[in-house]
Amino acid sequence: MTKRFYILVALLALFGLALKTTAADVTKAKKIVLIAGKKSHGPGDHEYEKGVELLKHSLDTSPNVKGIKTEAYTNGWPTDPKVLENASTILLFCDGSDHDEQAHPLLHDDRLATLRRLMKRGVGFVAIHYTVFVPKEKAGNDFLDWIGGYFDYETGTTPNKWCSAIENKSFSLKPVSLTHPISRGLQPFDLHEELYYHLRFRPADKRLTPILSFTPVSHDWDGVVAWAVEREDGGRGFGFTGGHTHKNWENPNVRRMVLNALLWTAKNEVPPQGVESSANSTE
Fold this sequence. Notes:
Number of strands: 11
Distance between the termini: 57 Å
Structural class: alpha/beta
Oligomer: single chain
Strand content: 15-25%
């Protein structure tokens, strides 16, 4: 009887320790917030909500990712912005502001002020595709600070005033900075996509690292379409100008790069070969 009693006590103690460890793990998990804008294009293009759901599913089911929890929100902004307060990184995938400033979710109410406060605290920020279209005066400097660059559609010499450029065609893309954690597991690949390039970056910004480019010359910023920044506030940022065509998430390099970036900006460890995810997560 005594022996059984001690065994029972030991088992209960182990069970209690397991519960305590699990609770601690949940508490320490890095929170990744994924925000999708409102649908504005035809089927298959600018599928913000589907893209965010895909990224969430990919992280939640990845066999080599741990220590995170993900939350996804639609319509451009969480109903309760308090959910951002304990985020480790925030991704925004939405419309830009070139046709209508109010189409960009950040240009409403006090949302820019909210992000400014979070960025100063060291929260990560990831901007995908059309999200990088922001007005120079209202948000350009913020994007230069948070992710290192943006699409400049106001200071060019062409009739439409674009300084940056867009092409929808087949690109031969290559990872540029192979030692950066976001580049883990990436290989050169071809992709038919609408990509933005010749973006607005700060001259000689030492915080910046090019991640993906279509130009043959290393560190030629005109052809850079994905990049990373380590901010002075301790936060990290990442931008990628692809994401127009939803089907392109089926490409493992595209998925891996953005998933790696989410972990890196959340200050979580990126697996040595990059984040593993199944193409089934694109459904």
